[in-house]
Amino acid sequence: MAFQVRPLVLSTLSAGLALAALLSACGGGDDATGWATDSAGSVTLQFEAVAGTTPVSCGSTITGLGSTSKSAQIQDLRFYVSDVQLIKADGSTVPLTLATTDDNNYADANGSVSLITLSQAGTGACTTGTLNTAIQGTVPAGRYVGVTMTLGVPMGLNHLSSTDAATPAVLRSDVNPSMSWNWRGGRKFTKIELQSTEAGNPVTLLHLGSTGCVGDPANGVPITGCTAPNRLTLSFANFDPARQQIALDVQTLFAQQDFTAMNMCMSSPTDAGCVSDFAALALNFNPDGTGTGTAIAGQTQTVFKAMSR
After folding, report:
1. Helices of type H across the chain
2. Are 207 and 239 in contact, with CB atoms under 8 Å apart?
3. 8 A C-beta contact, residue 274 and residue 293
4. How far is CA 193 from the centre of its chain?
5. What is the pLDDT of residues 188-243, one digit of tens each?
6. Residue 24: pLDDT above 90?
7. Neighbour tally for 108: CB within 10 Å
8. I need a labelling partner for 218 at 20 to 30 A (CA). Which of 36, 54, 202, 271 fits?
9. pTM of the prediction?
10. What is the rounded distance in angstroms from the CA atom of residue 194 to the CA atom of residue 74?
11. CA-closest candidate to residue 126, choices 56, 188, 23, 216
């Protein structure tokens, strides 16, 4: 009987080892899932502007835009992202610690925020901006599969004075002009502007930010909430920063706009010009003013996407 049992044990062990080797070779084991950081846990996230799949920048003419398939150039393209986290294979997330505090990055107990600038002042139709196309930071060294972040400025930082020297540089108007507005002293989460090449060079734009905010920061009354926060989670479940970048697709964003005329969306709760832009972002918006400014259940935004570098 002992002679008969021994081959069975060895066979089972061999099969197990063979299966483990196969899983490892095919990337099926835990150690082969996703991508690995370096020993310091350094991560760099790259951003780019595209029209469809074509990279675009200041000075380039973008064709096939909007409902009338017209051409335009970038005039301004900046946006804030916050709460960047890397996703692990088990679905848990780890916050990215920003590498620096400077004109484009800041973090404190209220959250982290970075300004991505894909326009360069003095190039083509671009009048504002100094290129900043990446976010750099660290996480615990290990393996990750994706990344998630918020399009917008955290509530605790959004309504700080834009002119106070104590306000972080990334949120100040003297450092990053025209990124604040009068919606209770908050920030424009996006400032995306395309100048048409049609007669009169009309502009199509999206200035996204929180509206319906309660309080009065200018008179010392802090904001306690906003009826339409208009912040958006951008999540990429399969994302490798060494091979991919996060692209903002202006063609998709403005697909329903008529580039022969001016199209303005400044996030006003009753602005009919915002309907198609918010739909592309999958944010709830109703021109009768009842929009919640929150993600639409069951829908996915189509403006930001992961693309190969």
Report:
1. 2-25, 155-158, 250-253, 275-281
2. no
3. no
4. 17
5. 999 999 999 999 999 999 999 999 999 999 899 999 999 999 999 999 999 999 99
6. no
7. 12
8. 271
9. 0.89
10. 5
11. 56
